[in-house]
Structures are given as structure tokens and as C-alpha cells.
Amino acid sequence: MSLVEVKALHISFGEREVVSDINLSIAQGQRVGVVGESGSGKSLTALSIIDLLPEAAIQHGEITRNLPKGDKLRGKHIGMVFQEPMTTLNPLMRVGDQIKEALELHLPDIDFDSRVAELVAEVDLPPTTALRYPHELSGGQRQRIGLAIALAGEPELLIADEPTSALDMITQAQIISLIRRICDQRKMALLFISHDLGAVSALCDHIHVLEKGRQVEHGETTAVLKSPREDYTKRLIAAAKPTRRRLTTRKIGTPLLELTGISKRFKLPGPFWAKKQYLQALDDISLTINEAECVGLVGPSGCGKTTLSRIIAGLNKAQHGAIRFDGQDISQQRGQMPKAARRELSMVFQDPFGSFDPRLTMAHSLYEPLNLMPELGQTERRERVEMALERVGLSPDMLNRHPHAFSGGQRQRFAIARSLVLRPKLVVLDEPVSALDVSIRGDVLELLAELREKFGIAYLFVSHDLDVVRAVADRVLVMERGRIVEQGDVDAVFDAPQADITKRLLNARLSI
Amino acid sequence: MIGFAVTRIFGVAVTLLVAAAIIFLLLDIMPGDPARFMLGINATEDAVAALRTDLGLDKPTLERFFIWLFGLFQGDLGISFSQREPVTALMLERLQVSLPLALSALFLSTIIGLPIGIIAAQNRGKFGDTSAMILAQIGVAIPNFWFAMLLVLLFAVTWRIFPPGGFVPWGENPAHAARSLVLPAIALALPQAAILARIMRTSLVDIMQADFIRTARAKGLSLNQAVWRHGVRNALLPVLTIMGLQFAFLIAGTIIVENVFYLPGLGRLIFSAISARDLIVVRSSILVLVALVILVMFIVDLTYAWVDPRIRQGGQRDG
Q1: From A87, A102, A105, residue closest to B211, measured CB to CB
Q2: Which residues, listed in sequence order, are joined to residue A101 by a DSSP beta bridge?
Q3: Which of A369-384 are b and which e, b meaning 16 or more Cβ less than 10 Å from the residue's Cβ?
Q4: Which of A145, A245, A307, B313 is deepest in the core (most CB within 10 A)?
Q5: How close is the nearest chain A Cα to the Cα of B171, in Å?
Q6: Could you tell me the pTM of the whole model?
């Protein structure tokens, strides 16, 4: 008999139906995965099982839970962990107390403190962690605490809603193996929800594929992955293995950007009389990017990738070292980067939702960079913007709308168009596809490759996703603790990694 | 926590010193001769010269500043020109009224405003919320002197429970003194309570959308338990700032209510000092007010740190 049986589940908000006719069952100790993109209804399905749907949601259908009656369902029989480790814990409360709170609700007769210690140990954290506040922990540590809270009531079913999506690859792999181990030890069933086919297939015996609130396909994981029946599933699988894109006619040119001995440190907060403490974000970084070359930059979170890309884009300043761009030394300038360099160097950010001012029209956001070129007339400006839009496959009549009118993929196209209006020679791409659903990732990567081929734009491609980097980059730089620890041809590095961190990053990949 | 407090105390000291210098200079660089200004246009040259010597205006600015500052450290705020009394004594007398009045008004507005805000947030969009917010809107819109007059009409004229005005010093009759502050405190508290209720509601409504409230519910807490155990404390942070600002207003901005109830408070002292061109009292009262506000903000900062571990540990609040 199955633990939870969902039959013909429909969820709607007013007139809008967001989940239609979902059927799934979870047996005792079984690990079931639900894969889908944003808006596929996967989280709402999970929330309906644990009875936590938002008030405005109307639910139809049948959810049978073969769990002891009379007790509390949430926390006691079903535990749940969520996606955002940064915000899922109360910032004002010690994490141990947050675990204890769950124990007090469900197991009032035990010795709370020793049980908290056991739970903290079960999720592989040192005992002192219980006394910490959430902001003192890393994302992975917080997610482990979230797991300990979910486990406190000894649930028969654990629901994990994108628990690893906000974590870096190495941490993701650790959390996934932790979840697997705990499920085995406790003989606990798992409902694992993710947009990442790799993560789901690493954990689950059975998967359900959801698209726009509908169940597209389900079955044994191996069977679905090996011989998918539906187009949508095939596209998901294909997107998880990005196609290789290299220059065909164009050749990689002469050095465009040269960094020598770049160092940057940040002052850590502390009382003013104490000895100043610093975080060495970048330590003696030297690198070269050639014309029309795509250089990948990978590393675990906190390794300095973002700081480095911001320094190259001129958003931060380095304390030491020299930057030459297009034959000109741009590091000796006081204050801002010279206009000429700013025109030829632009940046695309990870979050297509946060990188547009919601109150400005797209036209406003796209014309703004052209203020760096006051010599251009009205017609030329319009030509430039329209050409940039055309290159990314958008039409000019979309310009008068605001960012909220567009999907994530469209916004990222706008972001790329914005970076192109100045016709730059180098674009810094900071995780340009991580926030996008896998099925549109392919389109954006294709677009980037095409622009490189046609216009000879060079890229610095920052990503935590090694498969994507291998698909698009010619060369790769591996960073760890502010240093470049390995670099070279992308195939050479990934086939025969030398540095320990490269090996660990490669091992953490969840391939399907 | 101690490190945080010491850093802040240092900041408070520097702010106070800068504030004292600015207040001193402001009145000093004003065009015209202070002595002549204080005496009026009909004063004789001899009288003006005498007052200048009296005030020490013939000494250089810097020296006068340090004399004044030195006096401040000894609790000497100078002699009032219009009342011929030490300003320190005058102010202490007035603070006996203003300080308890402000504190009780703040206390009242907190115990009225916060629960209303919390109830409104919990019943968001429902009857309780709408009626609480309509009340709050009325409370914000109606001027407090009108409230004051209504209160006098009801409680002093019709029912004769509280005195309609006036003040007997604490030393003479503490019970009577307390009674004469009740109505003014209520009149001052209601509009502030309305503001607090609105801020508390908005803040708590925001917090209730937070992921950690969902975590708390998934843990097994009911919505109410999650709100009380996890929501309210987080929602209090922005409310604290507003309360600090309100206290600053309550200590000196109460002149109209003081007038309605005929209370000898700080507001009226400053008002009459300005009318009498008594620059010494004006300067000292402004400094005392600034000091009080800075002190209150310091207390708010400490409370913040006590509530929020992220601030305690010297970082910036990111929430």
C-alpha cells in the first residue's frame, strides 16, 4: 500500500488552473522525483501533499495519506525542506533552537538537547553548529539544518523542494548523497522536486515529468531517461547535455584583455579598535583573453569568480595589478574606467529578473548605454538598438513594455541585446544561463555562439556548470580561494584534471 | 554585544560634540549683535555693552565655545536672560513634566498600536483588518489637539475624572501630578499608536510571506504560532526605528497639547524663550533636545543589536 496517493489533483487560483490532473503515488521508503521548469506546478503539488497550499489556492482531487490519524501531519509524518537556504531559517534564532522547536511539538517527552545534538550529527555538522545563527553558516550548512528540522519529527516522508538549486556543484553533490544516506538509514520515503534532471535521477527510482501544470510522462527513472516517449522529456534530456559550440570560419585573434598580478581584498566587519581583518578575494591573478575567444571561468562558490568578473567589467577596482584592454592600460586611471573602454566591454548578469529596473521600459534600459556615445544621432541610436534586438531574435515593438511583461528567457535576451548596443569587443557573462529553465538555456547558448561567430565578440563565461562551460568555452580557468589553480584547453583540463579542486568539481557533476 | 555598544558610545560622543559645535556656531554666526537682539531696538548703548560683557561676547568665539562646553560638562547651561534663573534648573523643572509625559505616551501608543497592527496583519483583507486600518487612518488624520479637547470635554467636564489642565509638581502631590498627565498622554499617544499600528501591520504582512514562516509551518506550527514565535520579533525591527523617532517628537513636539492642558513642559519653555528672545535658553534647550534624541537613537541601536544577532556581530542588516 502506498504512503501517499494523489489522484486527479487540480489546483487553481481563481480562474487560472495551474495544476491539472496530476496523479502520483509514493510507496513506503520509495524515492520519487518530480521534474519540471518554473511554472510547471511541481512546488504546488508538493505543498498540497503537506497541506501547506497558499490560502488563495483552490484544490480539487483526492490526496490519500496512509499515515496514523489524529496526529499532526506537518512535521510529524511529512517533513519538508525548501530551496532558498538563505531565507528559510529565522535569522533571529539560534539554529539549534529552531530544531528544538520541532522536537517540542512532536516528541515532547524526550531530552531535547541531546536529540538536537544527534540530529546535528546526523546531517554531518559539528556539534557547536547548534549554537550558531543562520547568517553565520554557509548555504550548504543552512540546508543541512533545514534537513535536521525536517527530520526532527521522525517523518515517514520527506519532501525536498529544489533543496540544492541554490548551492554550488560540490555542495549540491554532498547534500544529495546526504539525503540518499538518511533516506536509506531511516527507511524514509522521498519526494524530490527539481528542475535539474541530473539531481533527480541521482536520487530517485521513479520520476514524473511536469510541463505547465500537466503530467507529461512518468515511470522508472532509468526507463524514462533511456527511452523518453514525449518530446518535452527528450528536450529536457537534450538540454542537460548541452551541444558543443565552436568557431567554424572565424579564427581566435590576438590578445584583447590582459590581466597581470591582480589582487583584491575586502575588509571584514569588526569593531574599529580591533586589528583589521581582511578577506583576500583575489590573489595575484594573471590571465589573457584573445579576440573572439570564449574563456570559461569555474570554481566553487566564494572562490572569487564574481569579484574577478566585476573587476574586469570595471564595477570594482583591484588594489594591485595591471589591466590592459585592447592595447591600452586601463588600470592606472583614477576613478572610473575610461569611456572608450567601457563602450567595448560589457556585462550580462545571472538574474534576468533583477537586472532590469522594473519601472523603466525596455527601450529606456536599452538606449541608456548609448549615452556613452554622445556623438551618435537619433537615427543611429535607433539603428543600433534595433540591430541588437534583431541579433538576439526580439522585435522592436516589444520595446515599450516593462520587464514584467517578459519571460526569463526573453529578459536574458534583452540583457544580451543591452550588452550589444555598444558593439563591445568583450562581454563578461556572469552565469548567463543558470537562472533560466533548461529548455531555453540551449537557445541562449546558441545565440551567444552565433554572435561570436558573426561579430568576433570575446566572452568571459563565468559558470558553476561544467557541462555548459565545456560546451561553449575554448579555454577554461579554474579558481580556488582567489587564485587560478589550473588553466588550459577546455578538453585537456576536463579530461585530465591536475588540480584537486578541478577533480572535485568534475566528480560533483550529476550527469544523466 | 559589548564591542558593538562601545563602538556606538564612541559614535554618540562624537555626534554630541559636533552637534554642540553646530548649535553654538549657528547662533553665533547669525547676523547682528546677540546682545542688541535680546534687548530690542530701544535699548541704550550702555545696556547693550553691559549685556555683552555679561554674556562674555567680547571674548573670541573659540574661547566662548570652550567656556560654554566646559559649563555643559558641569551641568551649567548658563543663566536665562529673561527669567534671571539658571537654565539647568528651568529645564529640570520642565523635564519633570515632559519626560514622564513622553514616556507614558510612548508606552500607551506601543501597547495600543502594536497589538492592533498584529491583529490586522493576521486578518489581512478581512473585517478585522479593514476596521483596524480605518481607525488607524482616522487616528493619523485627526490632529492631537482636537483629540485633547475631546478628552477634556469628556473626562474633565462631563465626567470630572481627570483635571482639565494645570500641573502640580511631583514633590507636592505625586498622585495629582500623575493624574494631570493622563489625558495629555492619551491625546499624544493615539495618533502615534495609529502610526505604529500601520507600520507593524505592513512589516508583519511582509514577514508573513518570508520563507522561514513557511519553514515554521512545515515544522508543524499553526499559522498563529508561526506568526507569534517567528513573525513578530522579525517584524519589530522597522517598528523600533519609528518608535525612536516618535519619542524624539514626543519630548519636544508637544507644545500644542501642552497649551491645551496648560502644562509647564519643555515645548512651552522653548516657545516662550523664543518669544522673549532669550538666546541662552534657546541654545541650551536645543542642545538638550538633540542630546536626548541622540540618546534615544543609541538605545534603539542597542535594542536592534539585542534583537538581531547580525547587527550584534558588527555586520550590516540585510533583511
Answers
A1: A87
A2: none
A3: bbeeeeeeeeeebbeb
A4: A145
A5: 44
A6: 0.83
Q: Is A335 left (phi over 0), alpha (psi -120 to 50) or beta?
A: left
**Could you give the C-alpha distances from A396 to A125, A361, A413, B9, in angstroms and in order?**
53, 12, 13, 58
In three-state secondary structure terms, A477 is strand
- Between β-strands A206-211 and A57-65, what pairing exists: parallel, antiparallel or unpaired? unpaired
- With a CB cutoff of 8 Å and minimum separation 6, the contacts of A45 are A6, A9, A11, A19, A22, A24, A34, A193, A210
Cα A293 from Cα A329, distance rounded (Å) = 20
CA–CA separation, A278 and A96 (whole Å):
29
> Closest approach of chain B CAs to the CA of A44, in angstroms?
13
Asked whether the predicted pLDDT for residue A168 surpasses 60, the reply is: yes
Out of B214, B309, B316, the one facing A52 most closely (by C-beta) is B214
Q: What is the DSSP letter of A92?
A: T
Count of positions (residues) in chain B: 319
pLDDT tens, position by position, A374-429: 888 889 899 889 988 887 888 888 888 888 888 777 888 899 889 888 889 999 99
Contact call for residues B142 and B191 (beta carbons, < 8 A):
yes
CA A151 to chain centre: 26
Q: Which of B215, B307, B312 would best serve as a mutation to test chain A binding (most A beta carbons within 10 A)?
A: B215
Kindly report, residue by residue over B257-313, the tens digit of the pLDDT: 888 888 888 888 888 888 888 888 888 888 888 888 898 889 988 988 888 888 887
CB A168 within 8 A of CB A480: no
The answer to whether B214 faces chain A, any CB pair under 8 Å, is: yes
- Here the cell at position B35 is 546682545
ipTM of the complex in this document: 0.81
DSSP structural state of residue A396: G
Asked whether B74 and B211 are in contact (CB, 8 A), the reply is no
**Alpha-carbon distance A184 to nearest alpha carbon in chain B (angstroms):** 22
The CA distance from B123 to B144, in Å, is 28
| Higher pLDDT, residue B253 or B136 | B136
Spatial contact of B229 and B216, defined as CB atoms under 8 Å apart: yes
Residue type, A327: G
* Lookup result for grid cell 548609448: A370
Strand partners, B300: none
Is residue A7 classed as helix, strand or coil in its secondary structure?
strand
Tens of pLDDT along A187-222? Answer: 999 999 998 888 898 899 999 999 989 999 999 999
Give the span between the Cα atoms of A201 and A192, in whole angstroms: 10
The C-alpha atoms of residue A39 and residue A18 are separated, in whole angstroms, by 8
What SS3 state is found at A33?
strand
Least CB–CB distance from A101: residue in B3, B219, B319? B219
B chain contacts of residue A102, beta-carbon cutoff 8 Å: 219-220
Distance from CA of B314 to the nearest CA of A (A): 6
For chain A, percent helix, then strand, then coil, each to nearest 5?
Answer: 35, 25, 35
Going along chain B from its start, the domains and CATH numbers come out as 97-277 (1.10.3720.10)
* Sign of the CA dihedral running B304, B308, B310, B316: negative
**A75/B218 Cβ within 8 A:** yes
Q: Which residue has the cell 529645564?
A: B91
The stretches of A298-337 forming alpha helices (DSSP H) are 305-312
Taking the alpha carbons at both ends of chain A, their separation in whole angstroms is 30
Chain A CB contacts of B3 under 8 Å are 270-271, 274
Torsion over CA: A12, A13, A18, A19 (sign): negative
